[in-house]
Design goal:
It is a single chain. This protein is an alpha/beta fold and 207 residues long. The chain contains 10 helices and 5 strands; from the N terminus they run H-H-E-H-E-H-E-H-H-H-H-H-E-E-H. It has a 5-stranded mixed sheet with strand order 2-1-3-4-5. Helix 5 crosses helix 6. It starts with a helix and ends with a helix. The model has no long low-confidence stretch (mean pLDDT 94).
Length: 207
């Protein structure tokens, strides 16, 4: 129970499979980290960043939390963004939510959940901004999925308003912020048509 032998066995099998296709893969990977993408996603175990886009380790720098939030007081997330932008020089920041998100569902429920309610309040704020639009829908699943989308868009705005990204744009650094959402039911990503690449675009599209 303590050792979880099955996971170690799976790890060895995976490593051997990778080395068969590219014998020097891990040697090359150990010498540098130069991903072009920062992925900010949900902690949900069904939404693994690399697997969704079929990319190997070393290609995506990842930060995950409940409901893929980017909060201006979250030093963990901001530190990840700063390292990705200023040190790794990523060219793309992707906020990827997913339909049917448990965090979104919990935020819409009229009951207490304990400590996590402090975190969920950020989602409830997004709901409050768009309450008329969401409440106009009759189907509960549609309401949740719309809030999942609106939450992604709000988090991309938070990234664009961060001093880290604004400083990068002011210095002329090539950097795009994207908003995507993933459908667990069919495995397909959807582009929410949010792609901000500079301060002018931000002022035009994000308030």
């Amino acid at each position: 129970m303590r050792v979880l032998k099955n996971l170690f066995e799976r790890n060895r099998n995976w490593a051997e499979k990778v080395k068969k296709s590219d014998p020097d893969f891990f040697l090359k990977l150990s010498k540098q980290q130069s991903p072009e993408y920062l992925w900010i996603g949900c902690s949900d175990s069904r939404v693994p960043a690399n697997e969704i886009v079929d990319m190997l380790p070393g290609t995506i720098f990842v930060h995950r939390n409940i409901a893929n939030l980017v909060i201006h007081t979250d030093l963990n997330c901001l530190s990840v963004i700063q390292y990705a932008v200023e040190v790794l020089k990523v060219k793309h920041i992707i906020v990827c939510g997913h339909y049917g998100c448990g965090g979104i569902k919990a935020a819409m429920e009229d009951k207490e959940h304990g400590l996590i309610d402090n975190w969920l309040q950020n989602i409830r704020d997004v709901y409050r901004y768009h309450q008329d639009r969401i409440d106009a829908l009759q189907d509960e699943k549609e309401k949740i999925n719309l809030l999942c989308e609106l939450n992604v868009i709000e988090q991309t705005a938070n990234i664009c308003h961060s001093t880290i990204v604004q400083s990068a744009w002011k210095s002329g650094q090539e950097l795009a912020v994207h908003g995507w959402i993933y459908n667990i039911e069919d495995g397909i990503l959807k582009d929410l048509n949010v792609c901000i690449t500079n301060l002018d675009e931000m002022s035009q599209r994000i308030k």
